[in-house]
Write a structure and sequence with these properties.
By secondary structure, the chain is α/β, with parallel strands linked by helices. It has seven helices and 13 strands. The strands form two sheets. The chain has an eight-stranded mixed beta sheet. The termini are far apart. About 6% of the residues have low confidence.
Amino acid sequence: MNLKRAMLVLAALALAGCAGGGDRRTGLERMYVIDCGENHVKDLALWSAPDAGKSAVFRNHCYLIKHAKGWMLWDSGLPDNLAALPGGFTSPNGLITSFVKKPLAESLREIGVAPAEIQHFAMSHTHPDHSGNANLFVAATLYMQAAEYDAAFGAEPQKYNFVAANYEKLRGAKLVKLAGDHDVFGDSSVMIKAAPGHTPGHQVLFVNLARTGPVVLSGDLVHTVANWNAKRVPKLNFNAERSLQSMQMVEELMAQTEARLWINHDPAQGASIPKAPAWVE
Ligand SMILES: [Zn+2]
């Protein structure tokens, strides 16, 4: 009798434990938000017409996810070799100066993960500030939308402002070529969502964090909170109409799941999110 009663109490406690605190329904354990450089933009005209003539500093992040089934990296930042240039690297047209203060390889070392231990690798898109260190992750399975893959590995990557040298070594990598959404670990905790427009096969990442709550990692769906609020499409986007449709899709996803949008480049929002070696759960 006593034993039965004790077991009932234990079962009730277990249920209470599920309702509050840690979520053990999925294998998702934690996510590190890693500083992956900065772009100093001289003139915002290409990103936000009303801000023409103004300058800005775009933060740049990589996201490392620890799941019971393995490590996943989302975006790979500006190239680590920029760390050797204290004055940064300025684009030939003078518009953007890129800085890396702490290489991604060093941040991963600090966390205790070697690039070869990362089994899953995906980029929001292939622009150089997201694919800068892609060549480090040849051992991982690469998740890429077919349209992005064809643009990046086709005859004219420069037409899309891609720099093939940044990711060339992934040409022979294990590939999951996507034509839409993909549940990376099979438990809905980490979902790639196709969000084309900024580039032909741009994608965003839905991460269902137990304590922080679900978040959508924006890639370059938008660059700033202001652009998101105004649903403003940058002039430099590959396809304006698809950009708007993708924003609409993400807005609906956020409404359904109560997810928040974590905007990779937004200066103010980036400051409010804990950075590696700390993590979010
Ligand atoms: Zn971009």
